[in-house]
Design goal:
This protein is α/β, with parallel strands linked by helices. Helices cover about 20% and strands about 30% of the residues. The protein has one domain: Metallo-beta-lactamase, Chain A. The protein is built from eight helices and 16 strands. Strand 1 and strand 2 form a beta hairpin. The longest helix has 17 residues.
């Protein structure tokens, strides 16, 4: 996908599984299971989608790093992760080495978005992308460092603490243009420091959502996950963002959908995600 100076690829780090009721909140199972069938443990399967954004000036940006390879067998069983992480293989397939990545963006610091930030090197944890700056919201960093009883199960310190010691952190506040036409915007919703990613150029906009709208099945306004910390803020964010995405014909991609780009259309008052070829 070309957007102005940038080439943007989307791929999956792999599949993981979470409880369906948790993913769809107040929506009855009889409705959500038509779109996302649950397994015998009531879990639904979701991709961990990542972006690779490149230009001709040497900028190589990775958005999201999946669950990584540091999880224990018990954790992998809980989250239904059957395959090794695909992130580095997918980058290699596109001709990108870890030391060529210049910027990593995490929409937030839950393990399924930041697990590939670091890797084990003997007894040490090191940055997977040694030359990259890692960008996330300052509020997200603060909350990840001091999780509470509700949030601590989603934050794994090994995914982000080593980045501070290595001097690789780039903390931002609210809305920031990181490169010409490439911006992040804080959206209090799933977490206080959740951020979305937008690439805009030549009248075209590509929008990468975050977990307040994790896949195409969450396009209806009330379909909000039970793990969003600020569900009413999620509702208002969806109302505003979806209206813009529709009227301005944005290219859209989701964090936990099949790794596809698409555009939104409206049919009989309902939004639909139409995949691009």
């Amino acid at each position: 996908m070309k957007v102005g100076r940038y080439r943007v690829d989307i791929f999956s780090d792999g599949i993981f599984r979470l409880d369906g009721g948790m993913m769809f909140g107040v929506v009855p199972k009889a409705l959500w299971e038509r779109s996302k069938p649950a397994d015998e443990r009531n879990r639904v399967a979701m991709d961990m989608s990542c972006l690779l954004i490149r230009d001709g000036d040497g900028h190589v940006v990775v958005v999201e790093t999946g669950a990584g390879g540091k999880l224990s067998e018990k954790q992998r069983g809980i989250f239904g992760i059957d395959e090794p992480p695909a992130l580095l293989d997918e980058l290699a397939r596109r001709g990108v080495r870890p030391d060529e990545v210049t910027l990593v963006i995490n929409t937030h610091l839950h393990f399924d978005h930041s697990g590939g930030n670091t890797r084990r090197e003997g007894d040490r944890l090191v940055a997977t992308f040694p030359r990259a700056s890692y960008v996330f919201q300052r509020l997200e960093w603060q909350d990840a460092l001091a999780p509470n009883e509700r949030t601590r199960a989603s934050y794994f310190a090994d995914d982000f603490l080593p980045l501070e010691a290595a001097g690789r952190l780039e903390l931002v506040d609210d809305s920031v243009e990181l490169l010409p036409g490439l911006r992040v915007d804080r959206v209090q919703s799933h977490t206080r420091g959740t951020q979305t990613v937008r690439v805009s150029a030549d009248g075209e906009t590509l929008f990468f959502s975050s977990d307040f709208m994790p896949d195409r099945h969450h396009l209806p306004l009330p379909w909000i996950t039970a793990i969003d910390l600020f569900p009413l803020d999620t509702l208002e964010a969806k109302r505003e963002i979806l209206k813009r995405a529709l009227t301005e014909s944005w290219i859209v991609a989701f964090t936990h959908d099949a790794p596809r780009f698409g555009r939104l259309s409206e049919h009989e008052g309902r939004l639909r995600f139409d995949e691009l070829g």
